[in-house]
Amino acid sequence: MISKKKIGKIITLAGLSFASICSNAQTTAKPLQNLQVSPNKHYFQTQDGKPFFWLGDTGWLTFGKLSREEMNTYFQDRKAKGYNVIQVMVLHNITAKNVYGDAALIDSDLSKPLTTPGNNFNNPAEYDFWDHVDYALDVAQKNGIYLGMVPVWGTNISSKDSKVTKAQVEKYAKFLAERFKNRTNVIWLNGGDTYGDKFTDIWNTIGSTLKTNNPKQLVTFHPFGRTDSSENYHNTSWLDFNMFQSGHRRYDQDTLPNSFKEDNYKFVLRDFALKPTKPTLDGEPSYEGIPHGLHDTLQPKWKDQDLRRYAYWSVFAGGAGFTYGNNAVMQMYHKGEKKGAYGNKAIWRDELNAPGAAQMQYLKKLILKHNYFSRVPDPSIVANQGEKYDYLIATRGTNYALVYTYNGKTMSLNMGKIKGAKVNAAWFNPRNGVEKAIGEFKNAGVLQFDPPGEKVDGNDWVLVLTSKK
């Protein structure tokens, strides 16, 4: 049903040009620079050539569940913690409404976005669902944040009851492309937790329509758990970079054949070697505060240490960034709501300060401290690599190397992989970002480095080696 305030105000696409439905909202913040794939094709940069390390958060239900005031709170908090990308659903479902009761579509038809003339919030007859999205983009821009927007969540297409057609998604994608064509802080995440090998005509239509109409806006595909966009869309012209969902199951919970299980770095190493070369990143790891395996709420919950492990493993393998997630924040759970998904009882505002949420910025700062575009994964540095939680992973540039251990395991390293006869060494603490020098070493042979503390899961460290000047 369309709310009474919309009666007499409905404007359909059939009756107006796309130009007339674009929001006339004005933003006082300086537009962010468009993002680009870097010349080496593995990473991102701003249009002036500066490194852009993707540090994302999953705020999936932002458009539907947050008020204007809450959006300001959320984006300001994430800016303070170093995030520069928020991943959101434009439409969680085709019956979507926002917190003010504004429906996104007419009769749940993707080809008929429900828009009204004007965008005055104080006049309910003017302000609509799409104006609220514009407001979110304005607030994000003021906070230096890009929005990775999923046009329509995958279950709306894959459900056995779905009546969504290719013709509808093409009109819808054209609407999105026209509405947001002047936005420099939009990234498109096609798909939405869905299998890439199903309904490919739909996903290719959305992807190609968005990319053709707005070539400066980056486009990728957000896939189902333990799958990767590269498996189905790597060679498409519309896919600018790869995204995988490393998933929420433990090693012993995953019985899928040929699965990488918790070893998310394997997605990156595989994608890093693909041709044509494209950036890749983990767009959905195990969320902090969500049960192992998702559905059994009696299972232990993933902790900040697990998010750090996924972050450092994937980035050191050559990832162009990392997306953090929190169970309460991703669903924007409010006090007094019905039972939260995946056993969540925490309030989203409270979980903004979950331990892992603040720790991700230290990885970003560490990576950007060193020469960004020369960085490559280099497994040959580690002589005692190990498996599962014992796995040691290394990345390097021309004059630095970084080696990560999740549990404080002693490192045996093949030296001589970076410049110089000698190197300075330091231990970097992923929990607080503190780096402590430990001395000068010869850059030859095999050397051992023993991290502080006992060998136990979560006692993670990064060994930082830099060429001595």
UniProtKB/TrEMBL annotation:
Gene3D superfamilies in the cross-refs: Glycosidases
InterPro entries referenced in this protein's UniProt entry, alphabetically: Apiosidase-like_cat_dom, Collagen-bd_put, GH
Membrane spanning stretches: none
Residue intervals of the Putative collagen-binding domain: 376-465
Transferase recorded as keyword: no
UniProt KW keywords: Signal
Domain of life, source organism: Bacteria
Signal peptide range in chain numbering: 1-25
Annotated ranges, domain Apiosidase-like catalytic: 38-373
Record-linked PANTHER family: ENDOGLUCANASE, LMO1036 PROTEIN
Protein name as catalogued: DUF4038 domain-containing protein
